Amino acid sequence: MAPPGYPMAGPPPRRNTKAYLIIGVALVCVVALVVGGVVWWRLSASDDPALLDGQLAASYPIAPGADWSITAESMGGQKFNSVIPSEGRYGTVGALTDGETLVTIVGDPYTSVGSSHWAVGVDARTGERWRFGEPVSTCADTIVDHSIVCRDADTLHFIDVRSGAALATVPAPPNTGSVAYNGDAAFVVEYVPAADSVVFHKITRDGPQWSRPIDNLPATAPGSGDASAFTATETAVVTSGLRVVGVSADNGDRLVAKAGSSEIGRFDDGTLVLETGDSDGTAVTNRRLVVLRPDGTTTDFAGENAIVPELATSGQRNRMLVDGRYTDVRNGTSSWTAAIPEVDVFGSRVVLADDREVIVFDRSDSEYLALDTETGRLLWRAPAGRNSAVSGHAVTDGERLITPTPDGGIAALDLYSGSPAWSLPPNVIGNSRTGDEPGPALTFALGDRLVTLTSTTITGFAPTGPRAIVPGTTRAGSSGSGGGGTQYVTPCGSPPVFTPQSFRTAAGGLVVTMKVTAKCPDGDVLFGPQTRITISDGGGLVASGGFDFQRSPLAVPAPDGGAALNLELTYPPGSFFRLPDTLNDANAAGGQYLVECDRGSTPERAPAVSAPASGRSSASSEATDTVFPAGADVTAASVSALRLQADADRAFILANLNNRWVAQLSSKHAGLVADGRTWTDQAILDEFLALRLRFNDVRLLWSDEWPVFSYQGWWVTVAAATFPGPVEANNWCRTQGFDPDHCFAKLVSTTAGPEGSTLYWN
């Protein structure tokens, strides 16, 4: 135990492994002019309603550049095939996603039991990939809670799609084919020709749960039976082809058994729509749509073909096309019939239904038809890729439809007009030609990442614009339904001016509000992924951190009428040196603060974004790292900050803590070896700032200025709460979770000496 008055080592600080920048230049952030006149945008989050599950979370107003790419060859196969057996067995490409990971199959040209294929997954944001260690021939048609089930001839593999790890491996019943999965269990179905029955099997990660035969089946619809589907929800399992048979996922009880087709419509709530009828083996009559609801009940109404939207806004989530009629699945009522040529329903899709338009992919003519949601009137039509009907298809960022093109590339169509916005040729997405025909190209939405899939290549693209909007709405700041009034800003050669407005602390660190003013008459932009913003004043460094503006570029509006960007920057612990009480009033500073912004590395292809509305817009960002330039004198900056803080706290201590008992939390000097480390001035400052954020009001003393300390040259941190005596101060230490070596009673006084000024506890 140290003698009375000796400043003991305090609690360990928060680590900071990087030094800090102490450099300032006059109130500027240098943003280099992007060659080619790129455009940028920023949308206030308050104007941004919740996006739809399944749409792109960020926008693509101009053509993106590839962020990452992988080939089938690099994954050990000849080509990518669909995980859906009815697609993969014919060599069709396809994949599933859960919004984060894309899962497909790589291997031989066609999937079948006994062929060489492996399930593979790719993280859309990073491009990191995995290949499952055991061969598989097919997978379920859904990913649930980041897991999927794939199978080979005699085994079911439960796979974590985030890592490719096996969650469980269990035997598969013999003579079974496709697999379905609802997150609780896997299901397989077996056809028994001798009895003309089907047997459903339920298998969990622990093994088989039950097998249920369904007998007395109706006659099949005429056809080859090549097309089929098999799916499971929380409550039902359905196989469809020439017959539609559904059972309870809980106990295998029979729910439906009819002649029918392979098409299964699926709503977000788990409702299934099944195309059924009566058959004598040569023809189907009395065609009915059976609606199988999540509670296991069924209803039916007249109809031959049903197309459930792949993506729908809240007002359209119960709607579908039934023989061209826009129909409510809840009661079968229709609001309009599409005034369009008869659509080849098999393989056609409703790719989007929003409050403005319903967009149909017509497989017969390989084109998109946009229909008015209220009337069914044809609004526009545009060509589509010939493979847009399989398990990957057009996606949307709320303003554009990004779709395969007839030449094997991809393109973006304006949702309002159908006019082309941009396109990428086949070679950019790794597409190859087969003879005179382009290979298939598919598009997928995974969070804010656009992912394309061809038979040989998977490519990820980073967004080129701001956060997406809900389809059918108009971006804030634009005029007209088509957004034709949206204005854009470009980076200019003259940097904007940064003026600190206020400083405050929050749980996250030091918060600085900046007024950012463009010098160029058309505005400016912040966009770098590693943008360093450093603030300093005459006392040295205030804060320095790296900010990522790539995901949400910030437009600085044109300065007409005093427009500016209010930018709230948060510097977490380890990236700031000063507290508000050591900083003068920013509004009255009169240019005393120096701000430097180093754009760092920037994307090769810049985003395009619309400008904020006139006036002053607001945005916020938090530093993701601490950055500094070569030659920065971190020690000098830390000593200056400690000295300024002790000076600022001295008046408060004299007025409120003098001759009173407090809790001493720390005492350090540079070079001290304590708590397993050698303390530096920077580490001492970091510890004080971390304690200040934790307790809101702690104060810093320099031991030379207070006679209650025996030794000079120590920085001492105390909590500002006062106590009647040392026992109460030590009780406070206990209640705060400190141990006796890192918190104890201390008398602060300008007149008392070291003797009797410290009381330790056990």
From TrEMBL:
SUPFAM superfamilies reported in the protein's UniProt record: Quinoprotein alcohol dehydrogenase-like
Domain Pyrrolo-quinoline quinone repeat: 328-425
Record's keyword terms, sorted: Membrane, Transmembrane, Transmembrane helix
Stretches for region Disordered: 464-485, 601-624
Keyword Transmembrane among UniProt keywords: yes
Record-linked InterPro entries: PQQ_rpt_dom, Quinoprotein_ADH-like_sf, WD40/YVTN_repeat-like_dom_sf
TM ranges: 20-41
A matching Pfam family: PQQ_2
Organism domain of life: Bacteria
Keyword Membrane carried by entry: yes
Biased composition range(s): Low complexity: 605-623
Name listed for the protein in its UniProt record: Pyrrolo-quinoline quinone repeat domain-containing protein
Organism field: Gordonia namibiensis NBRC 108229
Phylogenetic classification of the source organism: Bacteria, Bacillati, Actinomycetota, Actinomycetes, Mycobacteriales
